[in-house]
Amino acid sequence: MLKPKEQLRFAVLATDVVLFAIQDKALKVLLMDVHVPPWFRHTQGIPGGLVLPDETTDDSVRRHMRMKVGIQSKDVYAEQLYTFSAIKRDPRGRVVSVGYLGLVPPPIASNIFLRNVHWQDVTELSPLAYDHDDIIKTAIRRLRDKITYTTLVRYLLTTEFTLFDLQQAYEIILRCTLDKRNFRKKMLGLGIVKELHRQKRGGAHRPPSLYRFVSKDARVFRLI
Fold this sequence. Notes:
- InterPro entries: NUDIX_hydrolase-like_dom_sf (IPR015797), NUDIX_hydrolase_dom (IPR000086), WH-like_DNA-bd_sf (IPR036388), WH_DNA-bd_sf (IPR036390), WHD_NrtR (IPR054105).
- By secondary structure, the protein is an alpha+beta fold.
- The chain contains five helices and nine strands, in the order ββββαββαβαααββ.
- Strands 1, 2, 3, 4, 5, 6 and 7 form a seven-stranded mixed sheet that branches. A two-stranded antiparallel sheet has the order 8-9.
């Protein structure tokens, strides 16, 4: 039997998820109210919480998305991001969080109406609870990196889109301007999107053609 000073003390395990969407020509993150006095009063943070004894971290993040922001895991893309283990990241005690990156398509993002949840432009964030600022910054870096060599951006678009929509998504995330001709030549040349031979409705000008990704899953390519 261990002596008192030798007894093992374990950190509590949690999960937090950074959910991104593209709305109003901006990359936005889903925030919820955090009220944990005396440490946090009417603050904001990303969805998350503790991992239950009978859960994996994947199970945990799915549960928190469903219960706290009303998102079903089947409707979004999610991947493990990084483990955040700073000693004092949670003022209540020793908590290690497994962060996740989630991408929400427009139809789902526009149908979240919970009172304590809202989409916030990533360039207009106020200080957040815990270390959620750092988690979001890490998620942005991951997203910007991965869309240059995968088709991960597909999860931020509707199933059918125009080449303008696709280029705009890249420009919003990367915060840069891409040459229209070169971008379209690259995307079509790689064979990762296919034309649907029908046009997008609406607008005063000639309607643009609609496209979709060839594969149902994200694929690895050198895109940018």
